[in-house]
Amino acid sequence: MRTVEDYLQYLKGKGLHFKEDSIGFIYFGKQYTNASDELINTAIELTLKAQKSFDGSFYVSLLETFTTNQIITRKDALKFVEEQELLAI
Fold first, then answer.
1. Which of 45, 64, 77, 79 has the most CB atoms at less than 10 Å from its CB?
2. Burial zone of 36 (CB within 10 Å; 0-12 exposed, 13-18 middle, 19+ buried)
3. Mean pLDDT in each 10-residue stretch from start to end of the chain (89 residues)?
4. Distance (Å, rounded) from C-alpha 76 to C-alpha 63?
5. Which parts of the chain are beta strand (E)?
6. How far apart, in whole angstroms, are the C-alpha atoms of residue 76 and residue 24?
């Protein structure tokens, strides 16, 4: 399991560079929802897939949806998104 920091470095290595405000949103969402790194990383991934770039408000909203619905793991998050038809992934 990658930490958020490791995941951001991984994405940077793939050519995805986050602006300072985007990184701020990522850590704000982490603190605001008290979500695990696994769930944070999944929300980042799904945000990038759905929005084609990082959208901080979309990301925080997605994280809130996960925590409100007691989603804890990546597997559960992907299943939830598919079942609720929240994203076309």
1. 77
2. middle
3. 94 94 95 96 95 93 95 95 80
4. 13
5. none
6. 26
